[in-house]
Each structure stands twice: as structure tokens, then as C-alpha cells.
Amino acid sequence: MKRINVRGFEETYFDGQHLTLSDLKREKIEHKYLFNSNIAAYPESVELHGEKVCHVTGRGGLEGIFMDLGFRQTSDTSHFLWWELSITTDEICSAEQRFPTPLLPLTHNQLPFLQYFTSKAFQKESPYGNFRFTLSIRELLYHYGNQFCPGNSPVLRVYETVLYQQEILYTIVVHPRNIHCYDDYPRLPNFGEGVCGYADGLIWWRCQSPSESYLHSLNVNWNKQYYVWDHVCLALHMEPGWVLHMDQDRLFKRVNVCEVSQRHLIKPPETPLSLYEADNILTNLKAGKGYAGVRD
Fold first, then answer.
1. Which residues are bridge partners to 237 per DSSP?
2. What is the largest CA-CA distance in the chain?
3. Could you tell me which residues come within 8 angstroms of residue 83 by beta carbon, excluding any fewer than 6 positions away?
4. Does residue 222 carry a pLDDT above 80?
């Protein structure tokens, strides 16, 4: 099914399913890049184990988070607070060690190999802003459960696969047990088959396309072929007025500045900042709040 999202972009979505690349290709949909057959060989289904998630925002979002001492959903048409799986260099190295290297294309049959691929899931830049809050998944679920799920842990479910022009998004919905509008969605697996799941504080994710473009060798020329890339997000259910509270010191410890990717999704009137500008804003905010850098 198709819809227009809050940023005004068309997206194709599949409710209650995390569809693999092969699954998507069997669907009767038109897509510019998904069915591109002239793609150079690349490592498929690389299993990553992510311990952290991040929430990226602009200057207005940063100031709002410290004003509220927490996070809220900011769209009138969505009940979700979004956090993206954040893959570290160490986790990439671990994935490379688990990957069966004899199955790699000859040109990539030596470790490391993922560094040669350009998926936005592995990049430090963000399309959403200059200020990145990074938490462990355990920490995020603890705060969410403690505030909105009294006496219970939150529920994680397979929510959607969303297909954009060059992106596949696998969404995991997180909600309190007394919210029943997601009852028809399957529980997120903790092991076994599937695109992603959650176990022991880690999200495991079988990345199927670690790049948005691949170089295909034709004689002495290199021809760049564009393709889709995939990633995983957590969508935390938030009722109107809910704020996922955290104390000021914790917020300052969890935020840093990042570059904005060239193709960004920052809403006007905000604009991308340089790292120097973003760092000055964060430094001044800390000074104004009297933050001196308290240790954990």
C-alpha cells in the first residue's frame, strides 16, 4: 500500500511484516532501483548485533528536549518517537568475523570488507540534524518501561516494512501492554529466522544491502549502479502529552554533535549547521544549564 508521510514523501508500506529483499521483489510493485539487475556481487545477509540506538534532531529539537527534560513525539499525525539502530565500528568488526568468508565475492574475500560499502546505516552523518542522542537499547527500554509500563516490560512487535526510492526501513513498534491497537502485529522474535529481533539487550539484524550504490567493472571502466539500502528503527508509542523523561546530566552525557548528510531532511526554517556551529551551540547550552560534566 502507498501513502504520503509527514515529510511529504510517497512510501510503500507493508503492515505487520519485515519483508526481505527477495520478498519485496515478489510483490507487484513498481520501483526504480529495487529490480536493478546489474548490481555487482556484494555480501548479503550480514548479521549485525546492535547494542545502541540514536535519536537525531536539529537545534530546535535540542532546545526542546532540554526544556522538557525528555523526548516527545512532535507530529500531530504520528504517535511515535523514533530511534534508529546505531551500529558501531566494533559491531561491524564482529559481524565481519561471523560472516562466512568463502561465500564472499573474490574481490571481498578478505577482512575487513564492510568498510567498502556506503549504507547510511553505517555512516556518522545524519539527514535529520546536528545533535545525536545515543542510548543503549536496555537504557531506553528501561526508561520507557519505568514511566509508561508500570509493573510490566514494554512489548516489541514487528510493525512495518517501508520502501522508499532507495531505502528499506524495518520498523519495530514498542508499546505498553495496556495499549491494544497493535495486538494484531506479531511479536518481535528473540531468535531464529527473520530480518531482525531482540534478545539480551541487543537487536540482531540481518543486513541485506550494505550500500546504496555498487561499482560494476566493465572492461577498464567503473559503472556505478544505484540500489536500495536497509536499516532498522524503533518506534516508541507515545500518547499526546507523554514525555520520555531523563535528567539533565544524563541527557548531556548522551548527546554529541554530528555532520548533516548532503541530502538532508531538515524542515525549514532550520538549516544544517557546521560542526563548529553545532559544537558552539551545545557548549553554550551546557554553560547556560550549569553542566560541569558529572561522571556516571
1. 80
2. 64
3. 53, 54, 55, 135, 140, 233, 234, 236
4. no
